[in-house]
Specification:
Endonuclease, Chain A; Arc Repressor Mutant, subunit A; two-stranded antiparallel ribbon; 10 strands
Length: about 270
């Protein structure tokens, strides 16, 4: 049995991907492992094929994060990844390949992997979980693929809003828990206000691609107004009710680099835990 002690989970996964070009079977992954797998698979040019067999709660928790869910949705759409759930699974993170059985053990910020080369016992383990896979329930991610979100932003509103959203998106994961109301809908509204889009157009876009309903966009807009992050300007139209143009409520939000937009919000609108 070989062991590898890496600096972090991503390094561990990168090593596994490099050493195993065939299909990788992931059994009983933690929420953290699912998120790391999704991020890494999405970022590499030629990802391996991955099957994830998990309990429902772990996948549900992982997909509560918009970025992870959007990655998984993209990977599922192109056939790189399959997600299924069963009720009873081991507590350890297992990765099964044609060559070995790998146990991933988190150790704080580092990760220990124990690798058992292919032999009759590992083949029996693979067969057991392969049979369990055939009895499991497919898990369908309802979040739209990230590529759909970005491509549709660009095609409907232009390059600026797509690039602003892409640059600001990673910051969502860095927000303190007290800012949990700033989600993917709030971010799209903030970026929309930075580009002075109409609420009607942005909320219709979000509903069309399955990001959120127009009612959710409206409620989130009202919340952002209440805490003085955005404001709106009434714009008359030739037919129908006037539209609302989204605008940022502070010049710093408009002029800062988009990747620092949420940082500026934290600094100018601090909230106590």
């Amino acid at each position: 049995m070989d062991s590898i002690f890496n600096q972090d989970l991503d390094s561990t996964l990168q090593t596994i991907f490099l050493e195993n070009k065939g299909q990788i079977f992931v059994v009983g992954p933690s929420q953290r492992l699912i998120a790391s797998l999704a991020s890494l698979l999405f970022s590499i040019a030629t990802p391996p094929s991955v099957r994830i067999l998990s309990d429902f709660s772990a996948i549900k928790q992982a997909t509560s994060d918009f970025i992870t869910a959007a990655y998984l949705s993209d990977l599922s759409a192109v056939g790189t990844l399959e997600l299924r759930t069963v009720e009873i699974l081991p507590t350890s993170d297992l990765l099964l390949t044609s060559k070995s059985l790998i146990t991933v053990i988190p150790a704080g910020n580092s990760t220990l992997t124990l690798t058992t080369p292919a032999q009759p016992i590992t083949e029996d383990v693979y067969t057991f979980y392969d049979n369990l896979w055939s009895q499991s329930i497919p898990f369908h991610v309802t979040t739209p693929p990230l590529s759909v979100v970005l491509d549709s932003l660009q095609s409907r509103f232009g390059n600026n809003i797509e690039s602003d959203f892409s640059a600001a998106l990673p910051s969502l994961r860095k927000l303190p828990s007290i800012y949990d109301f700033i989600d993917e809908v709030a971010l799209s509204l903030l970026v929309g206000a930075r580009n002075q889009l109409l609420l009607y157009d942005l909320s219709r876009w979000g509903e069309d691609i399955g990001l959120a309903s127009r009612a959710t966009f409206s409620r989130t807009k009202q919340l952002l107004e209440q805490i003085d992050l955005i404001t709106t300007e009434t714009v008359p139209v030739s037919v129908g009710r006037p539209r609302l143009r989204l605008q940022l409520n502070h010049p710093n939000f408009q002029t800062c680099p988009p990747e620092k937009l949420l940082t500026e919000i934290l600094e100018l609108h601090p909230r106590n835990e």
